[in-house]
Amino acid sequence: MDSKSLISVIVPIYNVEKYLERCVDSIVNQTYRNLEIILVDDGSPDNCPKMCDDFAKKDSRIRVVHKKNGGLSDARNSGMKIASGECIVFVDSDDYVDCNMIAKMYDVMLKDDSDVVSCGVKWVDENGEVISEPTVDKNEILDTNEAMLEIIIDGKLKQHVWNKMYKTELIQDILFEKGKYHEDVFWSYQVFGKARKTSVIVDSFYYYVQRDNSIMGCGFSEKRLDVLEANRQRCDYVKRYFPAYYDTAISIYMGTCMYQMQCALHSKAEKYIIDNIKENLKYKNKGNIFNYVKGKQAVWMKLYFAFPKLTCLLRNCLNVGV
């Protein structure tokens, strides 16, 4: 790679005509100019397909894919299939990015010789007002083991795919699971399991728009339980390739079960959904959870294992963990 390498930006698009122009403008106006901008119209029922074609007429760097609706994962996979850049960046179509994001992240990738670069994120409302800005304390480089631990605990590395730049050769054979919510959780651990070096930078270049009618902004849906399946798969992967972190992975999995049950109870979800979450408790003894979980959290976890529904109702009453 050199300073003029082509970088592919993949934007999956569905029913976002209100936000799409702001998103595409933020990519078109990047200070790094050698871009391949892939707009994947995932069978959008609104004006997005025409908007995509109009954008392509104005900028020769834009490629448009029109396809039958297959969901976010399928759209991203379609974009990766035709991407010809040496690096790939994902941007969700209701979000937008700083004009220097690609240039800055690519400079870091070259300087550190890293496979992935992760930047900070500004969580904003629909008007662009900052809600929160979680970030790391310092710029640093993580090796494969360090990166895997951080993605398991959702620490310096988050599950989101969209605040990162990836070398194409690293991810081109790792497809997103079609039809799944929490598709990032299914995908990210596989990427960091292969990455030699990951650069984590303090700068916040990505603007994540928190909107009420987004997939994750809606009330509790049974599809949210896909995250538990993703955690199980990640535990199996970690046990095989990173056994030192297996207890940690199982602990996070059980903590996720408790959180999802709290959310389900808060939303008055149907009994079969609660029972579905309870089913995951059979995995609690697969690892030594209490090597990782300590203090008050260990007490809560023991209560949850003994009385799952009652414990989650109590935590909700006390506003613990939600």
Please give a structural write-up.
By secondary structure, this protein is an alpha/beta fold. The chain folds into 2 domains: 7-209, Spore Coat Polysaccharide Biosynthesis Protein SpsA, Chain A (Alpha-Beta Complex), CATH 3.90.550; 222-317, no CATH class. The chain is 43% helix and 19% strand. It has 12 helices and 10 strands. It has helices spanning 17-28, 48-58, 72-82, 101-112, 144-152, 168-171, 183-194, 226-241, 246-266, 271-279, 295-306, 308-317; strands spanning 7-13, 35-42, 62-67, 87-90, 96-97, 116-124, 130-132, 140-143, 164-167, 197-209. Strands 1, 2, 3, 4, 5, 6, 7, 8, 9 and 10 form a 10-stranded mixed β-sheet that branches. Helix 8 runs antiparallel to helix 9 and helix 9 packs antiparallel against helix 10 (271-279). The longest helix is centred in the C-terminal third of the chain and has 21 residues, at 246-266. The model is unreliable at 214-218 (pLDDT under 50). Residues 8-135 form the Glycosyltransferase 2-like domain. Its EC number is 2.4.-.-.
Number of helices: 12
Helix content percent band: 40-55%
Can you tell me the CATH superfamily of the largest domain? Spore Coat Polysaccharide Biosynthesis Protein SpsA, Chain A
How far is the first residue's CA from the last residue's CA? 44 Å
Mean of pLDDT: 94
Low-confidence stretches: 214-218
| Beta-strand segment tally | 10
CATH architecture of the largest domain: Alpha-Beta Complex
Shape: globular
Radius of gyration: 20 Å
The level-1 CATH class of the largest domain = Alpha Beta
Number of domains: 2
Under CATH, the topology of the largest domain can be stated as Spore Coat Polysaccharide Biosynthesis Protein SpsA, Chain A
Order of helices and strands: EHEHEHEEHEEEHEHHEHHHHH
Helix/strand/pairing category: alpha/beta
Biggest sheet details:
10 strands, mixed
Strand content: 15-25%
